[in-house]
Inverse folding.
């Protein structure tokens, strides 16, 4: 399929953020599930290999590997509470990283780049479900506007690259991703891995589990391995510059309370569960439509939430000492 971009007999894929949650999932699918095709070469970069904040370093690593295709996952990320206090850092660091990566890809004549956006880029004041056409329809939620605008600018950059150079630079928009190799930090991780770590601690210490907020907000969660499988499809077969939302359906949205109860069940926690309503809830919901994905991939089966969550909890317990937390 990718041969239509030129006479490419060989596909060399460079993955930035290769050691993160999604990067590790893509590595797993490529190496353990036979996801790589013949004639494909995969290179996974981590922050140990290159500082993508530095233009010269970024360009040098792209010149070294000369990828034909790029999956751009690297970003400065954090949960709600870290975002609320560091909007300037999230804006500047991510703008630098994204500009360096996309320009380096252009410089080495990469034919396709797939970047990873986030549902937090969508307007706060909107109708639901959100779809791909609504990204720029108003300001994002104030809690993480720095990160959200930096991610939105990837879409602007992609459209400009296509207009000026005819390059197929595009992006995916996953909903809340979780799975093995996540950042399970309680202070600045995302909601699900934070809950898993907290519940594990409460179980060990024989204390109640305290969930921040009311438990009422609703989220769509996508298992990192499902996302990885879809990423490979986008890389090979999705031919639009406009982003595509990668998510479970609206009917699979769960409340934070339901998510907490599922974690409690998966870890066999028997203690008391409390909700600290003095803590911020963040956006109540950001329901995304996966209708476009379903038009392209009506056959795709998502891992059931409880099964994926159980696998993630089991991974965390088994890898407790080495897990990011």
């Amino acid at each position: 399929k990718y041969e239509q971009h030129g006479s490419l007999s060989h596909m060399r894929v460079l993955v930035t953020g290769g050691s993160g949650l999604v990067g590790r999932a893509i590595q797993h699918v490529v190496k353990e599930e036979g996801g790589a095709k013949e004639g494909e070469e995969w290179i996974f970069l981590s922050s140990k290999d290159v500082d993508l904040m530095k233009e010269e370093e970024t360009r040098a690593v792209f010149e070294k590997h000369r990828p034909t295709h790029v999956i751009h996952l690297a970003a400065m990320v954090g949960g709600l509470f870290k975002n609320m206090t560091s909007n300037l850092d999230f804006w500047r660091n991510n703008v630098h990283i994204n500009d360096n990566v996309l320009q380096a890809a252009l410089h080495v004549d990469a034919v396709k780049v797939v970047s990873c956006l986030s549902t937090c880029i969508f307007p706060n004041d909107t109708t639901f479900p959100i779809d791909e056409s609504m990204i720029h329809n108003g300001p994002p939620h104030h809690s993480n506007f720095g990160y959200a605008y930096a991610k939105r600018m990837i879409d602007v950059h992609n459209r400009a690259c296509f207009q000026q150079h005819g390059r197929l630079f595009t992006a995916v928009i996953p909903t809340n991703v979780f799975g093995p190799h996540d950042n399970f930090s309680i202070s600045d991780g995302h909601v699900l891995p934070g809950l898993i770590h907290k519940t594990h601690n409460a179980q060990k210490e024989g204390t109640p589990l305290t969930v921040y907020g009311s438990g009422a907000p609703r989220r769509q969660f996508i298992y990192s391995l499902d996302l990885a499988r879809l990423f490979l499809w986008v890389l090979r077969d999705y031919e639009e510059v406009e982003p595509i939302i990668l998510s479970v359906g609206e009917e699979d949205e769960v409340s934070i309370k339901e998510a907490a109860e599922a974690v409690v069940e998966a870890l066999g926690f028997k203690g008391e569960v409390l909700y600290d309503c003095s803590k911020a809830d963040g956006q109540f919901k950001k329901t995304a439509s996966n209708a476009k994905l379903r038009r392209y991939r009506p056959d795709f089966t998502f891992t059931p939430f409880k099964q994926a969550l159980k696998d993630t909890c089991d991974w965390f317990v088994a890898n407790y000492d080495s897990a990011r937390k």
